[in-house]
# Entry
Amino acid sequence: MKEKIQKLELNNIEKNLFNDFDIEELKEIFPDYDKNKVEYNYYELINKLSLEKITNTYQFFRPNKYYDEIQLCSSRIFKPYSKLDIKNVKNEIEKNKMKVFNFKLFYLRKDIIADIFSLLSTNLNKLEYFSMNFISDIGEDEIIYPSLHQVFFAYVEISYIYIASKNKATIKDKYYTNIIKLYTKWKKRYLEELKREKEAKEEAKQKSNTRKETEKLL
# Structure
């Protein structure tokens, strides 16, 4: 998912691909969306990962939550005991421990993935409130923009498919409208700055070449 969006951005660095953040625009940008919805489904993509990879990333954001469960499950590299493993153990206490381990391992995956989506939703709600301050002119985006625009772009772009898949091609009942407005506003500014920077470099290059040609004639 991240790689697909980054590739799009690199191939279209001088224009804004994401404007409407709705299902129609999503299908235009990703023509294979209807045929390969699983590839664009955040839940399915996360669920395909090994629990070890999921917990490594999860602990970066929430190091203390599910700490004991993660330590327990990592002791077996997140591998459940097979039915045969359990059957071959004669000690009932040990057998029950193995069953408890499998139970905790199963629910650890479900709980962490659910919490990841809760975290995504919470962060987007916070970002919506943050964006509202600048869209309504409460905040001073001239001060905030230089230091935060790249982080803002990165988070919104990585969340694009999640947001767009929830929105129909109508303004009514659209999710995260302030995020969308601020993103398009800041992206427009960024692209204008990028254009001016490119033009300035080209002008400087032309002046340098002209100077070199003049020096050759002297």
In short: The mean pLDDT is 88. The radius of gyration is 25 Å.
